[in-house]
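Need tokens for this chain, all 267 residues.
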Amino acid sequence: MSATRMREAALLLMGCGLCLGSTFPLQKLAAAAGVPPASWVFASTLGASLLLTLGAVLKGRPPSGAHRLYYLIAALVSFVLPNLIVFIVIPKIGAGLTAVMFALSPILTLTVASLVARRLPAALGVVGILVGLAGVLVIIAFRGDASSAEAPLGWVLLGLMIPVCLASGNVYRSHNWPAGADSLSLASAINLVAAGLLFSAVFASGEGMTGLAAVASVPLLIAAQVVATGANLAMFFRLQQVGGPVYLSQIVDAVPARSATLRHALH
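Here are the structure tokens for all 267 residues:
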């Protein structure tokens, strides 16, 4: 990257971190108010998507219907599947061990990016990959946390699919980024698709209209969450465009902002 892009990427990385951090107290307040997790994740995703779409339209770069397959795959791999796996494995392996999985995202992103590019990373990258693999072996060998004396191996292996999905999503979005596409329009389209897929999770989890009504009962909280999530996603996708998947993975991923709600509610 050029010096200008490096500065922009660093500022975007800091901005993503600030927005991501602001979502956690909002999520805790929502949980304390009795808002179910799946409904909160869906509402914040939908609201942020609509906000991003409005921004893309005002910018004169609305989402294009020509990239529907890209939107679907990116939404599934990057956002829906990791959230679904988090929701499934937390009761089995505990919130602490699940949270550790996110730390593997940068190393796996580097690994997947190297495989796709068919070249070895720099020496420091190789060391990082080896350390990451050692970390995976440690997790498997000494699994368990304060909430589960010994997590079953099968559920731990399923939990390891969280960073695999995040890494694959990071690389897929960069490698298949539509030519000339605007980061804001892609962010809005991908997250609109993710919101549609998450809508089914609201009813699959048994929350249904009751959960959505609970979200509507805290309008100021959900409005603040939508703004924070929308700003985070706008910067996140621009960071992907400027810095690439490996640099992007240093923020771990945008998905923890959504998954944190599920982790907190199920802990």
